[in-house]
């Protein structure tokens, strides 16, 4: 069963590209947008994260922080973040636990890759409650950025 609006967000602790642990609890008292993406250095994933990068000022004005999560290693994500000049944390879910907890997980992805994060977007409020949840079955689709913004404006 997928996560829905009103559900408590699953707790997580992951490493960012600076090799520091980042937890859901670090964002208590803040709104958080989580973007799951299948793989660094791919076209649609780059478009998804660049959209967030380019709109980060808008989200910041609404009191929201942004993180991106994939099953890539933190070393791969570090290079990807550097190359694309992302201005938010990328978190490595290398052990695939967070993607599974958020029900954003392909058992088998393209080219028979096992255990890859689905493209997904979640808006989590200051109390850790999910206010928006979108998990896409097709990795070729992008999240609904208008719905994400609308959700943030209402909380």
Automatic annotation (TrEMBL):
GO terms for molecular function: antioxidant activity; oxidoreductase activity. Residues 3-155 form the Thioredoxin domain. Transmembrane segments: none annotated. The active site is at 45 (cysteine sulfenic acid (-soh) intermediate). InterPro entries: AhpC/TSA, Peroxiredoxin_AhpC-typ, Thioredoxin-like_sf, Thioredoxin_domain, Tpx_Peroxidase_subfamily. It comes from the Bacteria. Keywords: Oxidoreductase, Redox-active center. This is Peroxiredoxin. Pfam families: AhpC-TSA (PF00578). Gene3D superfamilies: Glutaredoxin (3.40.30.10). It comes from Runella aurantiaca. The lineage of its organism: Bacteria, Pseudomonadati, Bacteroidota, Cytophagia, Cytophagales.
């Amino acid at each position: 069963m997928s996560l829905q609006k009103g559900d408590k967000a699953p707790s997580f602790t992951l490493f960012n590209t600076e090799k520091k642990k980042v937890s859901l609890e670090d964002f208590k008292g803040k709104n958080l947008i989580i973007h799951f993406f299948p793989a660094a250095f791919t076209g649609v994933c780059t478009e998804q994260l660049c959209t967030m990068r380019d709109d980060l000022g808008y989200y910041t004005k609404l009191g929201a922080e942004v993180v991106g999560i994939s099953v890539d290693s933190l070393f791969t994500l570090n290079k990807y973040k550097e190359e694309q000049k992302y201005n938010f944390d990328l978190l490595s879910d290398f052990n695939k636990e967070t993607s599974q907890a958020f029900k954003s997980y392909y058992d088998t992805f393209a080219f028979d890759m096992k255990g890859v994060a689905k493209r997904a977007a979640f808006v989590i409020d200051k109390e850790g409650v999910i206010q928006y949840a979108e998990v896409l079955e097709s990795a070729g689709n992008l999240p609904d950025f208008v719905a994400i913004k609308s959700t943030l404006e209402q909380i």
